Amino acid sequence: MRGIVTRAGAPIPGVVVQLLDSTDAPSGASISDERGVYRIIAPRAGTFRVLARRIGFAPHRTPTFVLATGIVRDVPIELSSLAVVLDTIRIRAATCVALSRTDSPVAAVWEQTKTALLATDATTSSRPLSTMLMRYQRIDRAGTVTVRTVDVQDADSGSAPWYAPAPREMRDKGYARWLTPTTMQFWAPSLEVLGSSEFSAEHCARLDDASDPSLVVLAFEPRRKRRKIIDITGRIAVDRHTAELRELSFRYTNVDSAAVNASAGGRMQFARARDGSWLVTEWFIRVPVVDSSPRRPDRDARAIVYAEQVGGRVFNARRGDDTVFVQPFPTLSGVLRDSVTARTVPNAQLLLRESWRVAVTDSVGAFTIGAVRPGIHTLQINTSSLDSLGVASVKRLLVADSLSASRLTVPSLRQALAGMCVRGATFPTSGVPSLIHGVVTARATDSLGRETAKVNTTSASDSQPTFVRAVWMDPYTGMPMRFSTPAEPSGQYRLCGLPPDIPLDLYAERGARTSTPVRVQLNGTSPYGVQHHDVQPRSASEGALRGVVRDGQQRLVSGALVSIDSLLRRSVTEISGAWRMPRVSAGRVVLSVRRVGFAPLDTAITLAAGADSTLNLVLTALPRLGAAPRSTDGRAANSSVADDSAAAAVQWAAFEARRKGPGQFMLRDRLERAEGKPLGDLLRTLRDAAITPAIALSGAVPSGDVSSAVLQGAVLQGAVLQGAVLQGAVLRSGAITFRCPSAVFLDSRPLYFGLGDPIDLNLFAPEQFESLEWYANDREIPPVFRGLATCGLLVLHARR
Q1: Could you tell me which of 72, 315, 413, 578 has the fewest CB atoms within 10 Å of its CB?
Q2: pTM summary value
Q3: How confident is the model at residue 345 (pLDDT cuts 50, 70, 90)?
Q4: Bridge-partner residues for 358, per DSSP?
């Protein structure tokens, strides 16, 4: 059968036409299109009538008629102009009225609701739309909401939001049931169920308060509580003026407290399209995921692991080329906070890379980005502190709704520094993260040596490494320190863990090419900066210096500072005693050499342009410190307390406290008995301490020279540390597999902690120290040094 729905001769779209058999049971349904045309295929021949429903108007029933097999019958429908008025409905009583009754204000609201439900169901079945649809899955664990999946796709509205059994089965078996002793399955009511006579027969409703005065709210619930049958209760919101259905929400009843605590239930939002058809524009169902252990008889509920919510949203609907429904993509809004202090971050820039949508946080850290397509986005966050490091925070963001970015955090400066530095960004005695970073460029030349361009430091065909070095003089120990780091192929580099408030000389090296040294000093409160380097070949007006530093007995001296202060040229001798300055301006300069335990050396030299000069320098050792006066107190004679200062007393108390724990200790009397011997020989007597000649590790001088020493300790956990002089063994499953450097501290100052050049311990004499502490592995290292050393730790206490 077919026909046209009209009113006063004009076609009416969006009218739900139901075919009823002789018992008034539904036998088919359709919805009129924009020309008012409807079509229904009857399941069989027989006597029928038509029931026509339209939102805002009273239902219309036609007289009965006969449909014969193979005959197409025209049944025109003329609707009356009798409108349903809901704006006069007022709440008078709290009585729950059966939905099957037709003589109450509740019945008027329910009739309009059923019409919208039937129209929506008819739209999905007989007049499918093409829709842009988002589906998502969200997890709520202890109040923390995580979006697991988001999928945006073009779909056919013939697919219902969710599956539900037939109305009769839902009535008889309920809306949730146990499939196994540990698994419960929940169903949401389908459009067919909500509009069925079974649902109306089993539920009643009352008019309820509405926060929005433009809505009429109907609260429904089961008419009777059926033992072990899980039902639903909920609220229906209908527009007071147009009688259009806006929203239907529900929750499960007769469930244990797990489902109650998880707010188990769901919601559907409805909209009328421009051509009169209806669709569910937004929906979700939320259920608990509970502990899978069997329920104990003495406990009514299982523990909730998390609540799972699945749902979807329609952004547009089309019939052919005609768009009949549109709603905007979600607007992202929220507040950006520091991930450590939780303080708001103003003036930060947020960029969605895929769409190039940009927002800037206001004075309280709030931001808004409009019309963001749901799905996975790359969010880049720039703040003033991150910009100072030349970095940005990049996050993968799953956008499902406007709340997807409501709790955004950005790393603090300390976190950003730690993330940029593999070995850590904090200098041990400062407690403040520090970093210098930048880019190293090289000057490309043609076959005639003419400069053509500036390029990155490493090309695919040239694997020669580029190093950036920082050199400074430690003011406490008087020893030169040097940190080095390789530049990446792109030319980028990072020097981490530099000391603040100390002049640092920076330069880059690439083979025989170097950059012009620059002197910088990191601020103690904000110790980070940017410094770029340009490595250049030696010019015609420059020469090169190199050489070896030894003592009066021709032993190699490592850790000596060789400098030309007027040119900001510095070099620290390697374990082999070698030093070099690839680019030095020609002319007369003063070369200075400084090393703890040796007399200063200053020598004037004249360097010719283009010359490569070799200078072998000899330092004169200073007399060793004599023994301090002994106390008549027996304990003081074996202690490191030689004065009565408050600082010394505190240091002694800390030393005594550490002596009660793991580790090995030597006091003054033991150290003095080793006078005249290299310190390395004494350290060989410590448990789990292995001494290796420094030359065997560097390979820079003949292997027969064993005058230098390396201390080796043990690491039980952690990664291999590069470098070698003070070394330890990494233990895995009880087997020693390799060795790595140990840290050396002089009192509370680091001489070596895995960065820079290792320390040759034979440069020291045992009688120079009041005491020493040795911790062979990271399990023994005291908390005060934890994190500063992982491969063994030697602490030397200078004689007072």
Answers
A1: 72
A2: 0.58
A3: very high
A4: 351
Q: What is the dihedral of CA 614, 616, 617, 623, to 10 degrees?
A: 170
Report d(CA 440, CA 509) in Å as an integer.
Answer: 9
User: Could you give the CA distance from residue 138 to residue 135 in angstroms, rounded to a whole number?
Assistant: 10
Residues 6+ apart with CB under 8 A from 357: 351, 369, 370, 372
The whole-angstrom separation of Cα 130 and Cα 324 is: 10
Higher pLDDT, 296 or 518: 518
Cα 790 → chain centroid: 27
- Please, is 53 exposed, middle or buried when counting C-beta atoms within 10 Å of its C-beta (0-12, 13-18, 19+)? buried
Distance CA 473, CA 434 (A): 17
* Polymer length of the chain: 800
Angle at 106 between CA 104 and CA 109, to 5 degrees: 120
The one-character DSSP state at 457 is S
Tokens of 580: 């070099």
Segment 478-522, tens digit of pLDDT: 777 778 888 888 888 888 878 888 889 898 988 778 888 888 888
CA distance 428 to 455: 36
Residue 310 has which token pair? 């699945």
Q: Return d(Cα 158, Cα 390) in angstroms, integer.
A: 52
Long-range CB contact pairs, 643-647, < 8 A, 24+: 643/800
Among positive and negative, which fits the CA dihedral 674, 679, 681, 687?
positive
Could you tell me which residues come within 8 angstroms of residue 211 by beta carbon, excluding any fewer than 6 positions away?
Answer: none
- CA atoms 521, 526, 527, 533: torsion sign: negative
* H/E segment holding residue 253: strand 245-253
Q: Classify 653 as helix, strand or coil.
A: helix
- Give the whole-angstrom CA distance, residue 562 versus residue 539: 22
Strands (DSSP E) contained in 511-564 are: 513-514, 518-520, 528-530, 533-535, 542-551, 561-564
Do residues 346 and 339 touch, judged by C-beta distance below 8 A? no
Q: Are 564 and 589 in contact (CB under 8 A)?
A: yes
Q: What is the DSSP string of 53-118?
A: E-TTB--EEPPPEEE-TT---B--EE----B---TT--------EETT--SSHHHHHHHHHHHHHH
Q: Are 630 and 637 in contact (CB under 8 A)?
A: yes
Beta strands in 370-489 (DSSP E): 375-382, 393-399, 407-410, 435-445, 451-456, 467-473, 480-486
Count CA atoms closer than 13 A to 686's CA, side-chain side.
29
The single-letter code of the amino acid at 71 is I
Token digits of residue 661 = 């724990």
Secondary structure in 3-state letters for 255-305:
CCHHHHHCCCEEEEEEEECCCCCEEEEEEEEEEEEECCCCCCCCCCCCCEE
Identify which of 782, 797, 794, 774 has the alpha carbon closest to the alpha carbon of residue 686. 774
Q: Cα separation of 740 and 722, whole Å?
A: 7
- With beta carbons less than 8 A apart as the criterion, state whether 667 and 634 touch: no
Taking the alpha carbons of 623, 629, 635, 641 in that order, is the dihedral positive or negative?
negative
Amino acid at 22: S
**Pair 175, 222: CB distance under 8 Å:** no
Show Cβ contacts of residue 699 under 8 Å, excluding neighbours closer than 6 positions: none
Residue with tokens 């065997």, as numbered in its chain? 696
At 162-190, the pLDDT tens digits run 778 888 999 888 898 877 776 778 888 88
DSSP output for 409-421: EE--HHHHHHHH-
